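Sequence and structure are kept together here, with a separate record for every protein. An example record follows, reproduced without changes.
>
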Amino acid sequence: MLVPPIWNLLADAGIPTGLINVPVSYPPPERASFAISDFITPSTAPRFTHPPTLFDELRPLLGEYVIDPPPLESPGGTEAHHMLEGVEHLTLQQARYAEHLMKTREWGFCMVVFQATDWLQHRMWDALSGEYQIYPETPEILALRERAEKLLSALDAWIGRLLAASPPHTDVFIVSDHGFGPLRQRVKINQWLARHGLLALSRHRRLRGLLGRLDFLRLRHRINRILPRPRGGGKSAPPIWRRIDWRRTRAYAATRSDMGVHVNLRGREPQGIVSPDEYEEVRDAVLSAMKELRHPETGEPILTSAFRREDLFEGPGLEKAPDLIFILDGGACNHELRLDGPLFESTTSGTWTGTHRLDGVLIAHGPRIQRAQRLDQVDIIDVAPAVLQLFGLPVPDHTEGRIPDGLLTPEAASAAAWRQPHPPDDDDRGAGVPPESEYTEDETRGVEERLRDLGYL
C-alpha cells in the first residue's frame, strides 16, 4: 500500500489493535496487541502471528489454525463436500480464535475478516440464490445448499458471539467490500483485443506448442532462455503473457479481477509502444470497439458502463489502475485472459456461478451510531474516516472518504479531534507492503497460485 493502513494510524496514537485474517497484514504488525495474518501468508512462513508465540500458546486450547483456503470446487461430487468441510473448519477456527483473543487481550480496535461468504457465493451462487439455471435441482445439490446455508447461519451466530465478547459500549461496523450476483458469461478480453488489431500474438507461439509436445531434449527450457521475456520480466508472470508480442501490442488485459484494459504506453510499460500523443486515440479505439460487442445469446450490446480510470480514481496509485474499466452485462459477464477457444464461454457447473457486484453491505451499531437510519450514499472508503472520528483522530489529508451524513450521532460527528498520532521514530515499514525479502521465490509462486485460484490474477 502507498499509505499507512488504519491499524497503523491507530497504533501511532497508542490505541491497542487486534487483527485477524485482515488482507495485506503479513507480516503481522509488531505494534498490534495481537494479530493473525491473512490468506496471502506463505504456507511455509515461520511466523504468522504477533506476538510470535501466540499460535503456540493457543493451539493446545483451540486447535489448529488454518491459513490456506481449501481447494474451492464447484458443487457436484465428493470434492464439493470436501470444500465445504474445509471452509467450515477454517471459518469456525478463525471465529474461535477471534472470540478468545477479544476476551483475553487488550484492544481498542479489532478487525476480523471472514471470507467464507465470498467463497461460497462464487462457487454456489446458482444454488444458494435458488435460481438453478446452472445446477440441476437434485437431492445432491439441495443437500450441498443446505450444508452451505448452515455454515452461513453458524457464521452469523459467531458474529453475535464476537459482539458479546466486546465491551458494552463498543461501536460495531459490519462491512462487505462488494456485493454478489450471478455470473453468466466470460469474455476472453485479450482474444477480443487481438481480433480488433490492438493486441498481437508472438510468432513463437507455434514453436512453443510444438516444443511442449516434443520436448525430448529439454529444448523448451533452453529456448525460453533466448525468446523474449514476458512483460515485467519476472519469473512469475502469467504464462499467457509469453504469447503476446509486446512490440506490436497497443492494449491488453492484465488480470481477471481488475475488469479493465491497459494501454501499452511507452515510458510506463516495460515494452511500451504507444506514444503519449497516441494514448487517447488508443483508449478511444478500445472504447468504440467495446460499444459494438454483443451478447452472444441476445445480440444486445453487452457494455453496461465504461470509465476512464481518472473518472474513478486519483492519487499516487492512479498509474497502477487500468486505463479503461468496463462493467459488462450488469456485472454478469467477467473477463477471461485465455486466448484459445470461442470468444464467449457460458458458465457451467464446473466454474464459478457467482461474482462481485458494486453494492455491498454496511451495518453499524453502537452508542455513537444513529439508530434506524438507512444511508443511501456510502462508499467503502467512508468507513475509515468514521472510525478515526470515533477515536478522536484527525482524518489524514490523503484520505478520499468522508464521514457519511446520518451515520454517527450529531455529538460524535461534530466532536473535534482530541488525539494526535505519534509515528515511531524508526522507518515504519508497516505502511502495508512487506519487503520482498519476506517471500522466497517458492513462497511467491505459492501465494500467486492461491490468488489465481481465487480469481485475483
Summary: Residues 78-104 form the longest helix (27 residues). The chain has two domains: 6-179+357-453, 185-355. The radius of gyration is 24 Å. The chain has 13 helices and 15 strands.
